[in-house]
TrEMBL record, chain A:
Keyword Lipid metabolism (UniProt): no
Domain ABC transmembrane type-1: 227-421
Family: Belongs to the binding-protein-dependent transport system permease family. HisMQ subfamily.
Compartment(s) of residence: Cell inner membrane; Cell membrane
Protein name as it appears in the record: Amino acid ABC transporter permease
TrEMBL record, chain B:
PANTHER family for the chain: AMINO ACID ABC TRANSPORTER PERMEASE, AMINO-ACID ABC TRANSPORTER-BINDING PROTEIN YHDW-RELATED
Pfam families assigned: SBP_bac_3
Domain Solute-binding protein family 3/N-terminal: 33-262
Signal peptide residues on this chain, from the entry's feature table: 1-22
This protein's name: Amino acid ABC transporter substrate-binding protein
Keywords: Signal, Transport
Species this chain originates from: Paramylibacter ulvae
Record-stated family: Belongs to the bacterial solute-binding protein 3 family.
Gene that produces this protein: bztA
Amino acid sequence: MSNISYVRTEMLQEKAPPVTQTGIVKWVRENLFSSVSNSVLTLLALWLLYTLLSHVLPWVFQSSWSANSLTECRSAIAAAYGEGTHGACWAVIRERFFQLIYGFYPPELYWRPNLAFILMLVALAPVLFDKLPRKMLWFSAVYPFLCFWLLWGGSIWLPLSIVAGFVLGGFAFKLIGAQFGNLFATIGAFLVPILWWMFAASPVASGIHSAIPLGLEAVESAKFGGFLLSILIGITGIVLSLPIGILLALGRQSDLLIVKAICVGFIEFIRGVPLITLLFVASVLLNYFLPPGTNFDLILRVVIMVTLFASAYMAEVIRGGLAALPKGQYEGADSLGLDFWQSTRLIIMPQALKISIPSIVSTFIGLFKDTTLVSIIGLFDPIGLSTNIRADSAWNGIIWELYGFIAIVFFIFCFSMSRYSMYLENKLKTGH
Amino acid sequence: MKKSTFIGTVAAATLAAGFAAAGTLDEVKAKGFLQCGVSTGLAGFSNADANGEWNGFDVAFCRAVAAAVLGDSTAVKFTPTTGKTRFTALASGEIDILARNTTWTFSRDVDLKFSFVGVNYYDGQGFMVPKALGVSSAKDLDTATVCIQTGTTTELNLADFFRSNNISYEPVPIETNAEAQAQYLAGACDVYTTDASGLAATRATFENPGDHIVLPEIISKEPLGPLVRHGDDQWADIARWTLNALITAEELGITSANIKDAAMSAGDNPEINRLLGTEGNLGEMLGLSADWAANAVAAGGNYGEIFERHIGEKTAIGIARGLNAQWTNGGLLYSPPFR
């Protein structure tokens, strides 16, 4: 036999890594106890967490859902969990749940805000997710009028006659454009609908309505409240502030002196005053200016003010995006022979908006939360309603349960918005 | 939303506001309902229940006025107002009458140009402290921290009281009663001061009301009453005499139980007959129907019944009549005669 040194003929079995280098132990070592100071901080955090939860969780779960007043709540909790237990009185949420969601909207008509909300999701979907068929955007365009009609009811001809204004504007643009050129067409497209809305829309609508009465039971604004009101103000503000903000931002960069002056003046003025001041103007000051007897809806006034406020901020956010674009992009667009609107639409805006997504979304979130300020002018948003609920002698003294519920609902909305913005950022990421 | 909001904007821009305002009474009759300003929520005085129905002491007065003017106590729409929007809402004509536990003061009456039509609740500012503080008089409150609602007369009264007694305090400004309640229970302030009715209502909601006492000092006069705009005396008369009718009805023993019979035909008591319109023409003088006062009382009962139902001793708020008893029972309620 030849002298062959020992050679292993089969592979060694893989060994499990040392226990300290794998799985949960490794993770804990690396993330929680990597150094002395980290260990101390970890223990401290654990202790804090424990203290917090040991106080909050019993309060949340040793609660009463079935009582009819705060006193009943307290005795029910004492009976179930022993004397001296502090528990949440969630019964108030059970009793006032629909009020917190819909305000004083007539219960038999709850299907209308529900339907409006579902349709809103349908209308938003094609805007938010570009995989959906583009034809759905037509529905999105019609939706605001549909929503207005669903929520407030009344004759269907009024929203239709307002839509007719846009159609007329489109016709005016085409007809005048063919005859006199672009500038006049733009002016005409602005003027014709405004004249229509000012003088013709309402008489025409009531004229048709008296011939063909078709409509839903009208619901007055005083009945709006709760999250219905918050979402209404918030979504309208969000949806309208983006286009207005884009126009303002473009106007601010414009070379046309008057356009620029108007945009800068508007943005700086609105940003210079607090939202609450604008709300007071809407609720209080406008009453003095309008002729007595004018019924200019308070919710509409508030929506307008909130929209103006958000637009000014949005304009600055988008200006930031525009400023961040390299100059080469503008020059590249020019060198391709694109005119201003083409280059803005195809090259500048898509990039500027992409850069500004995080700030745009935080403006949206801020706006949505700011809608609670309307409670100060006596509108019954969830915060305003909570004051009212506490004034009921059965629930007087309930604070945390109501605020907690409102906070959770707001959190759900705001967190979804922020998640969506992250999704959008990832999808649009073109860098390496 | 009414006809067109666009039209509203346009009207604002194009129409000059140049027409004389018609009388409030005619306006209310024309639109068919009373627009009444109330608090956004104050226990016992105004709140909307789970069905959106408004209830409370101030609300009941609005309903009585609606019944007197329109014969229907449900023909009233409520505008919730906050401490900051209440006066402009009234001055601008958004509401016809304000019944929102508002203190009748010189400057509000004279300078802000309102007419207070009477007093529907005599209140006064008091102090609530935890028993553990060991204080028995407000004069012992030197260097105390005091929770105080901003923008109210209570704030000014407090400053006056401490200045005239030469003691110091540290204010903790708060916005609403609920906030005050939470702050006070959390110990952020030693003392909570507001109207005595509010203190009673707040204390009633505590888990251990016995641990807190309301100090004996009442440091201010807070006559709360409904108010209307200056310059429409007929409307002010209607509001004033509706309130007086409720008070007089109690004095004469007319309740929601016996009002039907009493108003049916003239009885033995001439003042009751005049009040209920079975004799004389008081209603006509006001520009209302003859049974205006009968309708007002039928809406929610007389003053005493309204008081007992919303804030009286049988309710959770549990306020004794005290100053708000009839003058015949040692209180301050004293209606001028219906003659």
